[in-house]
């Protein structure tokens, strides 16, 4: 199978798994979101260390600990991803799957806006149009909800800043997750011990199946990440940019069709504006990527003709 096709399949698998997460977190009840988060942190470290052990890939760690700035960035990334995970788990288990999907729909727009504000990047005209429609959608949804869509905004902003920090750190996905979960391990274990002393822990105090599912939170964190990494090295960023919408689409469908969350007219209108913004954004990204490839292909000919 050609590398490109294999990469696309890995990408679809990664985003499909992320999109179906709302089916998994409710299985972990009666655990509260913070307990689920603590287990996800701990078991994710176990899973990713096991994967690195199989690959015998450890040399990077000795080099990384000699780079305090990078370690500091990964510690910040750990805080951001824990906020993102906790918000997402809370949203799903409190019946707000659709709003969590909104967060990941608007995340690309938030990310480019952060690029302007923090990295002084310049947006193209259509990107500004897309961001404007995204802002309008948030206003429409806020009016419909009777409040700002805080869950969506926290998810989009935390993941947007997380992406910027990870870009600055420039560390591989599996290696980064190892350090991030290692940073989070101490507070996670401390909280789990606290729950145990208070008699409110659920791990080992419910069914064996429940304990297995809590431990499985580590596996379902690591596996899609590895699939994504395999996709990212095989396909262009423009393809990844389109595949990323698989996750919020599936989340949205789970919220509407399975969780049967209510969708008043104002919410449909808000989401329609978001989808219009993303269509414009995707069109602009694909057009720019196509022009870049064309310029690259014409480059040698131009040089030869001089």
Describe the secondary structure blueprint for this structure.
Elements: H1 3-19, H2 33-55, H3 59-64, H4 68-93, H5 97-119, H6 125-145, H7 150-169, H8 173-198, H9 208-232, H10 237-243, H11 246-258, H12 265-305
Helix pairs in contact: 1-9, 1-11, 2-4, 2-8, 2-9, 4-7, 4-8, 5-6, 5-7, 5-11, 5-12, 6-12
| Fraction in helix | over 70%
Distance between the termini: 40 Å
The rounded Rg comes to 21 Å
- Would you list the SSEs in sequence order as H and E? HHHHHHHHHHHH
Q: Return the average pLDDT rounded to an integer.
A: 89
Largest sheet: none
Total domains: 1
Q: Count the E strands.
A: 0
The total of helices stands at 12
Structural class: mainly alpha
Characterization of the model:
- The chain is mainly α.
- It has one domain.
- The protein is 81% helix and 0% strand.
- It is built from twelve helices and no strands.
- Helix 1 packs antiparallel against helix 9, helix 2 (33-55) crosses helix 9 and helix 5 packs across helix 6.
- This is Chloramphenicol-sensitive protein RarD.
- The chain crosses the membrane at residues 7-25, 37-58, 70-90, 102-119, 126-143, 149-165, 177-195, 207-228, 240-259, 265-283.
- Keywords: Cell membrane, Membrane, Transmembrane, Transmembrane helix, Transport.
- Belongs to the EamA transporter family.
């Amino acid at each position: 199978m050609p590398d490109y096709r294999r990469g696309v399949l890995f990408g679809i698998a990664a985003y499909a798994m992320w999109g179906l997460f709302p089916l998994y977190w409710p299985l972990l009840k009666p655990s509260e979101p913070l307990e689920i988060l603590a287990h996800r942190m701990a078991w994710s470290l176990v899973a990713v260390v096991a994967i690195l052990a199989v690959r015998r890939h450890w040399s990077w760690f000795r080099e990384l600990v000699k780079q305090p700035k990078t370690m500091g960035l990964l510690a910040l990334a750990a805080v951001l991803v824990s906020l993102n995970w906790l918000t997402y788990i809370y949203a799903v288990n409190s019946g707000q799957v659709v709003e969590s999907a909104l967060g990941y729909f608007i995340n690309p727009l938030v990310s480019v806006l952060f690029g302007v504000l923090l990295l002084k990047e310049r947006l193209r005209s259509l990107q500004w149009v897309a961001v404007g429609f995204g802002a309008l959608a948030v206003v429409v949804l806020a009016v419909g909800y009777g409040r700002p869509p805080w869950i969506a905004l926290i998810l989009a902003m935390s993941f947007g800043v997380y992406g910027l920090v990870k870009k600055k750190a420039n560390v591989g996905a599996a290696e980064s997750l190892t350090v991030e979960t290692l940073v989070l391990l101490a507070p996670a274990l401390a909280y789990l011990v606290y729950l145990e002393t208070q008699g409110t822990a659920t791990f080992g105090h419910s069914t064996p199946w429940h304990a297995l599912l809590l431990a499985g939170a580590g596996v379902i964190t690591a596996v899609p990440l590895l699939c994504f990494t395999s996709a990212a090295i095989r396909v262009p960023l423009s393809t990844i940019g389109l595949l990323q919408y698989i996750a919020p689409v599936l989340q949205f469908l789970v919220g509407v069709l399975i969780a049967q969350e209510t969708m008043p007219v104002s919410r449909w209108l808000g989401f329609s504006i978001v989808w219009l913004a993303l269509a414009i954004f995707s069109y602009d990204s694909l057009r720019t990527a196509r022009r870049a490839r064309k310029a690259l292909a014409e480059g040698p000919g131009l040089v030869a003709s001089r």
